[in-house]
Amino acid sequence: METPIQLSFPLPRSLDARIYLHLTVKSKAILLFLTTASMEEASSATPLGSFVYALPDRYNPSQPLSTALCTVEPTLEFTTRLAKLLARKTQRPTYVGNSISFASTGLGGTVEEEMDAFKKVVEVTLSQLQPILESTQSRANGAGTE
Q1: Contact partners, residue 95, CB within 8 Å, separation at least 6
Q2: What is the chain's mean pLDDT, rounded?
Q3: What's the CATH code of the domain at 109?
Q4: Which pLDDT belongs to residue 63?
Q5: Do the domain assignments include residue 84?
Q6: Domain tally, the chain
Q7: Residue 130 above 50 pLDDT?
Q8: Residue 49's domain spans which residues?
Q9: pLDDT for 146 beyond 50
Q10: Which one Pfam family would you cite for this protein (predicted)?
């Protein structure tokens, strides 16, 4: 599954903004880019935001390791949490670029609005990664080994 998946979905608690997702799954890593735009802004370029690399820790699987490769303070925590979660769930190195803006949400980016967006991004991304999760689980259980 090395063909990029590109899709969009509404930004929770926003009237017209959407989250745009670009997901590429390589044999050894996952690459995810996220941004937001309203219908008027959809054709204009958006800055990168934060870019974080996370990888599973085989000695402590519940705590993936991460490093920020590019930091933009308003997006850093969201990006780091997402990269670590995906690395832990997929057991693959994960790169996440994020420039999601909460300026168009009802209250301008409260913790609740950010958590709603995080949950939605995780839900959509994991649904797209389901085949990888299933193959990772089958390998962990010893299925398919000879």
Answers
A1: 29, 30, 31, 32, 51, 52, 53, 69, 83
A2: 88
A3: 3.30.230.90
A4: 95
A5: yes
A6: 1
A7: yes
A8: 5-132
A9: no
A10: PAC4
Alpha-carbon span 124 to 64, nearest angstrom: 21
Structure tokens at 109: 């980016």
pLDDT in tens, 40-58: 766 677 778 999 999 999 9
* 114 belongs to a structural domain: yes
Phi, psi for 84 (deg, rounded to 5)? -65, -45
* 8-state DSSP, 27: S
Alpha carbons 64 and 27: distance in angstroms, whole number: 19
Is the pLDDT reported for residue 125 higher than 50? yes
Largest CA distance in the chain: 56
pTM reported for the whole predicted model:
0.86
Q: Compute the distance between CA of residue 66 and CA of residue 76 in angstroms, rounded to an integer.
A: 12
How far apart CA 7 and CA 1 sit, in angstroms, is 16
**What's the rounded Cα separation, in Å, for the pair 53 and 30?**
10
Asked whether residue 140 is domain-assigned, the answer is no
For residue 37, pLDDT beyond 80: yes
Amino acid in position 143: A
Helix axes 73-90, 111-128, angle to 10 degrees: 40
